[in-house]
Each structure stands twice: as structure tokens, then as C-alpha cells.
Sequence to fold (149 residues):
Amino acid sequence: MADQPQSYAHHTRWDPPFHFFILPVFLIVFIASLVHLGMRIYHHHHPLHGVVMVVIALAALMAIFKIRLNALKVQDRVIRLEERLRLATILPEPLRARIPELTVGQLIALRFASDAELPALVQKTLNEKLSRDDIRKSIQNWRTDDWRV
Fold:
């Protein structure tokens, strides 16, 4: 990601250890546990061992998703706080009073906008109730955010 500047087309962040190792490994383990259970049932063995393996694999898969989602939720809360502070310093008074009208999703998308284009984009966002994706498409000068989880 550091090789090219951020833009609408290049702002998604992939975490290689999570997306390309941990998640696939746990998915494979879950599928293998289902196959193991199926084989035990097919060969008329008691399925308890297979059921326990499926439950443990499912619990592990759910745990990695919860760990990831909790980290993203904390990140969103920090972004919300940072952007409200940033908006309070950059926006002119009439817009500053409307900061609470912005949703978390809108604040998260606005973090990519440069300081220069932020007031006009906030005004447009509030007037037109732009979605997170519409805001990102409207940004002309992207601020990089390399600290994302």
C-alpha cells in the first residue's frame, strides 16, 4: 500500500498475516473438522469426537473474527474522536455547530479529505446526506491514513 498514494481506488487496507494466513488456516481447520465429523458418521463411529472438533474449530473461527471486529470498532471510535477534533479546528462556525449531525460512517470517510477541501465536503455531506462511499468518491486530494488496523 505504501507503494502508491491513497485514492478511492487504493484505500482498502489488507493485513497479510490476518487475511492471507490466520483466516485461511482457521477456515481450513473448520472445514477439515466438518470432513472429520462426516467421515466418523459415514464409518459408523461415535460422532462425539467429531462434534467436539467442529465446535472447537467454530469457536476458534468466531474468536478470530471477534478479535478483529473489536479492534476495528475501537479504531472507528478513535477516528470519530480525531475527526470531530479536526473538524472543530478547521470548519467555520456555522458548520462547526453541525458536527454532531455527522454519522460515524461519514466521519470515518471524511478522514481521507484534505484540510483544504474539508469544509466544502462537510457542507455537501450534510446537505445531501452523502454515504461513506459517496464521500470517498468526492474526495479530490486524499490524506493518507497508514495507521489503520
About this structure: Residues 48-90 form the longest helix (43 residues). The CA atoms of residues 121 and 135 lie 8 Å apart.
